[in-house]
Amino acid sequence: MTMEMWALGHTMSPLRLMLFVALAFPMLVGLSHLVGFEPTVELIQDGVDALVALAAGFIISIAMLFQLNVLGAGSSWREAAGAVGLFAVAGAIGALLAQSQLHASPEQERREQQKRDRRIESSYPAQLLAMLIGALFLSINVAPTDEVVLLAAGMTPWHSIGLVLLSLAIMHAFVYSLEFKGHHHRAEGMTVASIALRYSVAGYALALLTSLLVLWLFGRTDDTSLAFVVSEMVVLGFPAAVGAAAARLVL
Hints:
Helices cover about 80% and strands about 0% of the residues.
């Protein structure tokens, strides 16, 4: 919980905050389908689990913010709603991911992992969703910090290009590490270039779009030039790309 995160909750537009939670909910439903509290068949079950995870995120956020004295008796409803709303989404993602990380035994963990792999790898949109959630999870924690703005201000176009290439290289390295570990199997006839386009480039594009959306929601693009927004997006796109690439390891 960074100072910038709860300070942003105090100043963030209520409309953008509601939009942030509204956009996060469909992703929580998708995450519930992939690695939720229990195997589900119907969409309504995933929706209920997503609501439970979001409620848990709100409860935990309220408790922690009061415990740390970030919120108190003197806090306004707008300040409380803003700070809690931002943390609740990250808490909801963590609540849903807990099932994929905590198991009663190694054998149960192995069986659950096989089920998740089959569900995710059987659908390309499911893999894109996993990368999108990973990108969102890291970007919402980094975007409020001043480092994003400071780094973007100090970077030249050549630095930005280099960071883009580095982000793509890291994502591609994750793709092949997953293949070596057996989580990802190369489809018949797919070349190295097609794998890079299908996973690394597509995943990085999702990371950049997620970064741009988060920057806008958090007010980081207000009253700035297009060139600076692009620079911010590339800076935030680096941790978002790592989160997108690592999502398959977590899921």
